[in-house]
Amino acid sequence: MTVRGWCPSLAEPMRSGDGWIVRIKPRRHGLSAAQARRLAAEARRWGAGWIGLTNRANLQVRGLDDGAIGPFAAAMLRAGLAEADPAVERQRNLLPPVLLGSDPALGQRLEALLDGLEAVLGDRSAGALPGKFGLTVEGGGVLPLGEVAGDLHLRAVGDAVWLRPDGARLALRCRWDEAAEAASRLIRLFLDRRGEARRLRGLVSALGEDGFWAAAGLVAEQPPTPFASAPAAGFRGYAGTARGFAAAGLPLGRLDPEALDGMATLAERFGDGTLRVTPWRLLLLPGVARADAAEVLQRLRRVGGITEAADPRLRLLACPGAPHCASGTVDTAAAAARLLALGAVPARGLLHLSGCGKGCAHPGTAGAVLVGGADGRYGLVRGGTARDLPAAVGLTIEEAASLLRATGDAEGQETA
Ligand code: SF4
């Protein structure tokens, strides 16, 4: 990838080593089965053969050639998977509670809140937001977003909505009907002072927390403790009902179009007819009866989903790497297959395979990170990110596997 700090959207694809990349942003209730089938068909027809799940709960189709972008985008628009106005589509970065509309613990008030926030993001009267600028809305339930980051994080707790800018310790407490206007006010502050920082976190840092809230003319408070989140593959029931959701991971977060087709069929037959993309690279089938859970999980495995929480493939993260990404020096998919075959994925903790030092697949820390170097070999970072100084360099994948096996579990703190 050649442009830092920029995200591809449907109308603004990004050039990479294997062609153009476009990003599909599912709506707040996920993909309908029909949308999933349409996306699978068009990705199969025009793309590189797989669809990537991103840590912003988007879907990324890559490998489109010059002649494919127009027809692919037209098909996505017809399917209702994008806004016709490219500027609105670019800013439509709103991560809702992943089970909205299915988990009964997520109340109707969240829908009205999201209506208001969508209007705020669609309003460009104050200027254009950076393509990566996004909002996260947290409403509790059986699978909260927890610590998933956004430039502005909104958390609904009881009668209040708390707005916390990324990087801030304090948050603004609002009534539900005030929250969208408060979000608009904070976004306008960012846009008014956009020369000082590229993201909201940078502005909080530049002004200092007290200075930020003073500049906004708002008084912030200590927010309540975040909802704890424990995303995992498998089935989990909603509180007080006979239904729940089934969650499946995909090897390296890559979704085969046939697998997407198969999951769409399962969603119609056993669930509420939708699929949810999550920031944890798990696909969810909401609305599954507890009585059908075992059968659904078995059928998910048949179409390529990973449903056992202990499966080592779920602890292995990899970016597209070479040859898909022009910046990649190593074939991350081949390396991942080799590490699995050699039994080198640690029994605990994340192993992050990065095609270069940018670390796109996982900006946070992992127990161990293998980073492709200019020589086509690997550097090993323990308990850090792809940008950190490696403890060992110039490793073949077999040498890296030996080091990983020798120490057993991946070590160190991990962050999202
Ligand atoms: S981390 Fe991977 S996807 Fe990101 S620029 Fe490097 S090789 Fe490309």
TrEMBL record:
<keyword id="KW-0349">Heme</keyword>
<dbReference type="Pfam" id="PF03460">
    <property type="entry name" value="NIR_SIR_ferr"/>
</dbReference>
<keyword id="KW-0411">Iron-sulfur</keyword>
<keyword id="KW-0479">Metal-binding</keyword>
<keyword id="KW-0004">4Fe-4S</keyword>
<dbReference type="GO" id="GO:0043818">
    <property type="term" value="F:precorrin-3B synthase activity"/>
</dbReference>
<feature type="domain" description="Nitrite/Sulfite reductase ferredoxin-like">
    <location>
        <begin position="248"/>
        <end position="302"/>
    </location>
</feature>
<dbReference type="InterPro" id="IPR045854">
    <property type="entry name" value="NO2/SO3_Rdtase_4Fe4S_sf"/>
</dbReference>
<keyword id="KW-0560">Oxidoreductase</keyword>
<keyword id="KW-0408">Iron</keyword>
<feature type="domain" description="Nitrite/Sulfite reductase ferredoxin-like">
    <location>
        <begin position="13"/>
        <end position="76"/>
    </location>
</feature>
<dbReference type="InterPro" id="IPR051329">
    <property type="entry name" value="NIR_SIR_4Fe-4S"/>
</dbReference>
<dbReference type="InterPro" id="IPR036136">
    <property type="entry name" value="Nit/Sulf_reduc_fer-like_dom_sf"/>
</dbReference>
<dbReference type="InterPro" id="IPR012798">
    <property type="entry name" value="Cbl_synth_CobG-like"/>
</dbReference>
<dbReference type="InterPro" id="IPR005117">
    <property type="entry name" value="NiRdtase/SiRdtase_haem-b_fer"/>
</dbReference>
<protein>
    <submittedName>
        <fullName>Precorrin-3B synthase</fullName>
        <ecNumber>1.14.13.83</ecNumber>
    </submittedName>
</protein>
